[in-house]
UniProtKB/TrEMBL annotation:
Protein name as annotated: YaeQ family protein
Lineage top rank: taxon: Bacteria
Pfam families according to UniProt: YaeQ
Native source organism of the sequence: Pseudoalteromonas fuliginea
CDD domains named in the record: YaeQ-like
């Protein structure tokens, strides 16, 4: 018997002072059985960092040919493709060829630096690719917030992110690698 996704209801209040985006969202996220709490919260963080009209969560882990989030225009062109993790160069090349802009958020305890060192020279070929590294301790702290009903306030200013609940404040500083 196959396991079903866990449905998460998220109330998100976003104040992005860098891009002048101030909005409240009621989101429903499906957490795939193999998706960690850390990855789920990074998806939510990526949504906040790139929030725009038309940004959508995709099938994610359930579909090999889709990113985690994307913005598709009315003319069905992919405007923004958002990846998570440490994908191989082929996947990033495919994303860069299909989309106007690609953003990758890397995460993990000890493997980000190794991945970056291995792939860095080839990735500079992709002019529409931006890569951000997320601190392991910060993303683990975010994972501790997972609940079926999450209420978050996310504030973004000068590239720094503060994620707040009624009882917790977590600072995340995405480091831009390229």
């Amino acid at each position: 018997m196959a396991l079903k996704s866990t449905i998460m209801k998220v109330q998100l209040s976003l104040s992005d002072m860098d891009r002048h985006v101030y909005q409240d969202f009621s989101l429903t996220l499906a957490q795939h059985p193999s998706e960690t709490d850390q990855r789920l919260m990074i998806r939510l963080l990526a949504f906040a960092l790139n929030s725009c009209d038309g940004l959508e969560f995709t099938k994610g882990l359930s579909a090999d040919d889709e990113p985690e989030l994307w913005h598709v225009s009315y003319s069905e062109e992919i405007e923004l493709w958002i990846e998570l993790g440490l994908p191989d160069e082929k996947r990033l090349k495919k994303a860069c060829n299909k989309s106007k802009k690609v953003v990758l958020y890397t995460y993990g305890e000890n493997n980000q630096a190794i991945w970056w060192q291995k792939h860095q020279p080839k990735l500079y070929e992709f002019k529409n690719l931006s890569i951000f590294s997320l601190d392991y301790a910060a993303t683990q702290a975010l994972a501790a917030l997972v609940d079926r009903g999450i209420k978050l306030a996310i504030t973004i200013q000068d590239g720094e992110v503060w994620v707040n609940t009624d009882t917790t404040n977590i600072e995340v500083k995405p480091l831009q690698l390229m």
